[in-house]
Amino acid sequence: MTYYKEYSKVWVSVDVIIFGFDEGKLKVLIGRRQMDPGRGEWSLYGGFVSADENIDEAAQRTLKKLTGLNNLYMRQVGAFGSIDRDPGERVISIAYYALINVKDYDEKLRVEHGVEWIDINKIPTLYSDHNLMIEQALRIMRQKIKTAPISFRLLPSLFTLTQLQRLYEAVIGEEVDKRNFRKRIKEMDFIEKTNLIDKKSSKRGAALYRFNTKAYNEDSNFKL
Amino acid sequence: MTYYKEYSKVWVSVDVIIFGFDEGKLKVLIGRRQMDPGRGEWSLYGGFVSADENIDEAAQRTLKKLTGLNNLYMRQVGAFGSIDRDPGERVISIAYYALINVKDYDEKLRVEHGVEWIDINKIPTLYSDHNLMIEQALRIMRQKIKTAPISFRLLPSLFTLTQLQRLYEAVIGEEVDKRNFRKRIKEMDFIEKTNLIDKKSSKRGAALYRFNTKAYNEDSNFKL
DNA sequence: TCAAAAGTGTTAGATTTACACCCATGA
DNA sequence: TCATGGGTGTAAATCTAACACTTTTGA
Predict the structure, then answer these.
(1) Out of B10, B54, B81, whose CB is closest to A81?
(2) In chain A, residues 82-141 whose CB comes closer than 8 Å to chain B
(3) Of A137, B17, B57, B90, which is least packed with CB atoms within 10 Å of its CB?
(4) b (16+ CB within 10 A) / e for A166-179
(5) What is the per-residue pLDDT across B59-118, written as a single tens digit (0 to 9) for each?
């Protein structure tokens, strides 16, 4: 039994915007497209939604295929559906953005897939409407980072306050005052100071902090 | 030539969440579903995306078909793609929300399509994941109304400050202080007082205001 | 010993909130 | 004349933004 047979079907794909934080910059994973049409152009990583999977699952699968990682933070950006957005066929694509800690990403796997971390301020022209997708993902993330604890998805589980601040600055695209920033962090009890010291970043050493998920869920209020 | 023939295609539909403001309440247009499966269930109005139209166009077309109106404010909510969200077939749906001035909607057309304005606080269980769609649309709109001049899409072109305030309250779901609200409105030069008086709402009469799009585009800053 | 990053408080200004009464009019 | 919604200002409290020096230590 087919209810909708008078209507036409289309291909639906997912594209993932993978953000990472490295060398003080917010970066995104892009590579050279490995299929026609557009083979060789800079592009987001993506895949087709198959008949028997949820779109969120398709995005998770695509993300896993590229990074080998599970349980990453991922959110939908939206659907992109101009008729000729894809030069080959009519394909509707649903964009997602994901956050990963660059250090968790196996370098071998990265090279294998031919993708690179590119500074969000230096993104070349990409295949199809992928530049637009990144722009929108960024807009959403910039807003999100002020009201939800997503920074921790981009950092190692132990981090210094300077790292956290640099990340915040890289995302919103402007510098903030160190003392004011730290004051606000101190008010969030779920960002815990450990008694570990990071010696890599400075001679003096900086206190390492950690995000306490449990405390956050109980206490729950976030505002940067 | 077909690039992607190894992948499967799916049906893609659009569903529109049409908000209106009437009798001091924020309402949404829903009706009884007129096709199988789910015939007779409460449902959003929707339609299929055809092979030769953008998804935004499909949404516009659907909206036009239902309301007869063009140039309505409309924004995408997102894509909904659980495998079994539709009880009949695998259909991915892209939700949009639109804002209309209830008075602009031809009552005859409304009855013809069998849709009704339902208070957002009294929405019954809807077909498929339509309740979820409305919830998300509301969340987006609640946020939007604080930073963008969208209220005017839900009001007649001339409105009183009390109307504007009641609308704002209906959207965010809480009451606000009259004097503080008016103070903020006064700061926005693109909300212009006319010398017309509305006598319907009170004996004394209330000044009618209008939104000046041109002034807004030049002056442009909005914050409620 | 000095360069480099870590760490720390105070104050002025801006914004937000709370709050109550008079006005004009039609019924 | 009175009930109804329209219209108006001030003060306290909170939040935000600006700002500079001391500490530690490895090279």
Answers:
(1) B54
(2) 82-83, 88-92, 94
(3) B57
(4) bbbebbbeeeeeee
(5) 999 999 999 999 999 999 999 999 999 999 999 999 999 999 999 999 999 999 999 999
Q: And the tokens for A71?
A: 């349980």
Q: How far apart are the C-alpha atoms of B182 and A163, rounded to whole Å? A: 43
Nearest nucleotide, CA B198 to C1'? D6
Which of the four pLDDT bands, split at 50, 70 and 90, describes residue A94? very high
Which residue matches tokens 């991915």? Answer: B92
Nucleotide nearest to A179 (CA to C1'): C8
pTM of the predicted model as reported, rounded to 2 decimal places: 0.96
Of B4, B48, B53, the CB nearest to A48: B4
Shortest alpha-carbon distance between residue A81 and chain B (Å): 5
The candidate with the shortest Cα–Cα distance to A164, out of A147, A172, A152, is A152
Residues B87 and B36: their CA atoms lie apart, in Å, by: 9
Predicted local confidence at residue B2, as pLDDT: 84
* A3/B49 CB distance under 8 A: no
Q: CA-based angle A117:A123:A127, to the nearest 5?
A: 100
Residue B1 pLDDT: 62
Residues 179-208 of chain B in contact with strand D via CB under 7 angstroms: 179-180, 182-183, 201-207
- The chain B residue lying nearest A94, using CA atoms, is B79
Q: Please give the structure tokens belonging to residue A154.
A: 């981009």
B197: the nucleotide nearest its CA (via C1') is D6
Q: pLDDT exceeding 70 applies to what percent of chain A? A: 100
Q: How far is residue B137's CA from residue B6's CA, in Å, rounded to a whole number?
A: 35
What type of residue sits at position A217?
N
- Separation of CA B224 and C1' D21 in angstroms? 40
Q: Which residues of chain B have pLDDT under 70?
A: 1
